[in-house]
Design goal:
Number of strands: 15
CATH superfamily of the largest domain: Alpha/Beta hydrolase fold, catalytic domain
CATH topology of the largest domain: Rossmann fold
CATH architecture of the largest domain: 3-Layer(aba) Sandwich
Strand order of the largest sheet: 2-8-9-11-10-12-13-14-15
């Protein structure tokens, strides 16, 4: 029976109701697969360093450990290898960590028996391990093309083939572009020392499983290892001064900007990301954090907007969100010099309701959404570029019966825009992304593209076949679907338009 232990889940909206530094791992999903060391043998999984790391950083944590598991060899008593069962892991993990090799080293030497196998068989097993490790790595990269993948070695036990297994894991990780960690070298934990085993392992003759004290000791070292993999830092800031939120309603969330600052900046632009959610929530899990991380990891400064939700009472569905978006553009422009990007290269990318919000912000910057509250509001709220991804609420359906609505969603009908979309003189170039199986109709993006053409504004339009609404970054997509590569298409457009480096 397939088992996955889920120990930590976060409520992002609640956590993001305050400002300050935030972990770059917050809201991300981490899956750890391996042997009894991953399951923590006879002790609690929540005591492991990886479970504690996930809790500390606000991650969703999934444990796929199995006692006796090997990377490369099926075992009658302990079941299939990781190569055979890696698909048990969720397909939407942001971090995939493989911690294994201890049982492989023993199997290579003993070939499933109690004593050492013939030398020829040992050599055959070592070659099989190398081949299957490479095959597993290829499959992991195919399944998780945008995820961080890391291999963590077994402890360096003074027994046959442990050193060979660790070295092959290192070379294989280097070959496939994965992170690699030599556990003993990183932590200084020596399983061959009796005093170390007594203090940090689950028994005095145990060379595989840490006790709570050992996991605590390892946590700080592994935390540094994972932090070194992140190409950006994050910071959350409030967008309104205390007590000055316009049209404030106590049932709504507090709006914030989450800054993603790349360690290696290659662009002088800044991208504001607006998740969707029907103005009832912000769907940051697949339309926020990973999207911001994608562009930040490519060298662009990003600011993710968590606008107010749910919809305000007595106002248009988007009214308070539009105030937040206009304010966010002004804050980003005010921060340009400090954060090292051009105030003339600020863009916005949004999904669904966030795509609608992107269009409202991009096409009506000459229309103030609120009265000024401080000097920041003297800044322009115009954008240099916009990327609406399956935008909703674009076409006006006021007064239409069902037949008329269906006709407009099918073929565009009159293509009359919602009144909040002004297409004023500051409307910027756009790259539009949509799926043609979207109930919110790709004709909305077609209509926007047609209007931009009419105005002489550069635009690009991608409508992907058999693609539904809400795919975010890989949520409802498989690698064989053309829409899988939409982030790359947007990146290429940004490069061609001069907003990102080639």
């Amino acid at each position: 029976m397939k088992k996955c232990i889920v120990l930590a889940a976060i409520a992002s909206a609640a956590l993001f109701s305050f400002a300050g530094a935030v972990s770059p791992f917050h809201g991300r999903r981490i899956g750890v697969i391996g042997d009894s060391y991953v399951r923590n043998h006879r002790q609690k999984i929540e005591d492991t360093w990886h479970a504690k790391f996930a809790r500390k950083h606000g991650m969703e944590y999934f444990n796929y450990g199995r006692n006796g598991n090997c990377i490369a060899f099926d075992r009658k008593r302990f079941g299939e290898s990781i190569l055979a069962r890696y698909k048990e892991m969720r397909a939407d993990l942001d971090y995939v960590v493989v911690i294994a090799g201890h049982n492989d080293a023993n199997y290579i030497f003993k070939d499933g028996g109690e004593d050492g196998a013939p030398v020829e068989k040992q050599a055959e097993n070592l070659k099989l391990f190398e081949e299957r490790l490479d095959e597993l790595s290829q499959k992991l990269r195919e399944r998780y093309p945008m995820s961080k993948i890391a291999f963590v070695s077994p402890w360096r036990v003074d027994k046959p083939y442990f050193s060979e297994v660790i070295e092959l894991e290192r070379k294989n990780a280097e070959k496939h572009g994965f992170a690699f960690c030599d556990a003993s070298a990183l932590t200084g934990i020596d399983p061959n020392d009796p005093g170390t085993r007594k203090a940090h392992f689950q028994s005095e003759d145990d060379t595989a499983h840490l006790n709570p004290r050992g996991h605590d000791m390892a946590l700080a070292k592994f935390e540094g290892f994972f932090l070194s993999l992140e190409p950006y830092t994050m910071e959350v800031v409030d967008i309104w001064p205390e007590g000055k939120i316009p049209s404030v309603q106590t049932n709504q969330t507090i709006p914030t900007l989450t800054w993603y600052t790349p360690a290696k900046k290659t662009s002088d632009s800044c991208l504001i990301v607006c998740p969707g959610g029907g103005y009832a929530k912000t769907a940051a899990g697949h339309e926020g954090y990973p999207v911001a991380g994608y562009f930040a990891s490519r060298g662009m400064t990003v600011a993710m907007l968590s606008y107010r939700t749910p919809r305000p009472y007595g106002l248009e569905k988007h009214a308070t969100a539009a105030q937040d978006a206009q304010r966010a553009v002004r804050i980003v422009r005010r921060e340009a010099e400090k954060r090292g990007f051009s105030k003339d290269k600020i863009g916005m990318l949004g999904f669904s309701a966030g795509g609608h919000l992107t269009l409202v912000t991009a096409t009506s910057s000459e229309t103030p959404k609120y009265e000024p509250v401080d000097e920041i509001d003297s800044e322009s709220s115009s954008l240099a570029f916009a990327v609406p991804v399956y935008p909703a609420y674009v076409l006006d359906e006021t007064g239409m019966d069902k037949a008329a609505r269906d006709a407009q969603r099918r073929d565009g009908g009159e293509m009359k825009f919602a009144p909040e979309l002004k297409f004023d003189s500051h409307t910027p170039p756009m790259c539009l992304v949509h799926g043609d199986a979207d109930g919110h109709t790709p004709m909305a993006s077609v209509a926007v593209y047609r209007e931009l053409r009419r105005m002489g504004i550069p635009a690009e339009l991608h409508v992907f076949a058999k693609t539904p609404h809400g795919f975010g970054i890989y949520k409802k997509l498989t690698r064989d679907m053309p829409a899988w590569g939409w982030p790359e298409r947007v990146q290429e457009w940004l490069e061609f338009m001069g907003f990102a480096s080639r």
